[in-house]
Amino acid sequence: MKFFIDTADIAEIKEAHALGILDGVTTNPSLIKKSGRPFKDVAKEICDLVDGPVSLEVTAVDCEGMLKEAAELAQYGDNVVIKLPLIPEGLKACKRLTEQGVKTNVTLCFSPVQALLAAKAGASYISPFVGRLDDIGQNGMEIIPQIRQIYDNYGFETEVLVASIRNPIHVLDAALAGADVSTIPFSVFKQLVHHPLTDKGLAQFLKDWKEVKA
Ligand code: E4P
């Protein structure tokens, strides 16, 4: 499973990238706002920093507007993936961009049938938001194996990109369900690495090593 980081914070991206296991970045308008920086500056910097795909989201809500924005976003780097909302106009734009050979990430997906529509429109990635489903009292992870099965049933190549991840269990369940990608907030990235027994075990090994004669 590929690991993307879900942030527009350059320091966080650099730290995750330094681990050597970062495959890409996803952003959205809220994350750009949180960065406190002009969109153009932050988008260009992220695209230059990371080799893998960088999702940048359109804000138009009509197909022609989305296509116009997509052309502008594509100028930030060869690795730009155009993020489109899962609304009828977004599906139209996805189809058109796919025909032009442009990579797309269809976002704000909350059901397996929505994911089927995005795949039929040729999406490169589908982003089901598991945490936001949990937030309204549904089991968000339930839709991931369903989407996996639908895509496998029909041989869709759209990658399942699990989004709105809140904790390491979401990452575990995404991997068990055969998701292609998890996009992970930096706070969860850090949680993935640590285990108290690893820290305790290492401290004991280092203590014992000091007592070993050379
Ligand atoms: C992914 O592409 C989205 O930007 C993100 O995962 C949304 O997460 P949130 O529900 O924590 O805002």
- CATH structural fold name: TIM Barrel
As an assembly, this protein is single chain
Helix content: 40-55%
What's the order of the H and E elements? Answer: EHEHHEHEHEHEHHEHEHH
What spatial form do the alpha-carbon principal axes imply? globular
Rg calculated over all Cα atoms? 19 Å
Describe this structure in words.
The chain has 214 residues and is of the alpha/beta class. The chain has one domain (2-213): Aldolase class I (TIM Barrel, Alpha-Beta Barrel), CATH 3.20.20. The chain is built from eleven helices and eight strands. An eight-stranded parallel β-barrel has the order 1-2-3-4-5-6-7-8, surrounded by seven helices. Helix 4 packs across helix 5 and helix 6 (112-120) runs parallel beside helix 8 (143-154). The termini are far apart. The relative contact order is 0.12. The structure holds erythose-4-phosphate (E4P). Erythose-4-phosphate binds at residues 6, 26, 28, 107, 127, 129, 131-132, 163-164, 183.
Quick overview:
The protein is of the alpha/beta class. It has helices at 10-18, 29-35, 39-49, 63-73, 88-99, 112-120, 130-135, 143-154, 168-176, 186-193, 196-210; strands at residues 2-6, 24-26, 54-57, 80-85, 104-109, 125-128, 159-162, 181-184. It has one domain: Aldolase class I (TIM Barrel, Alpha-Beta Barrel), CATH 3.20.20.
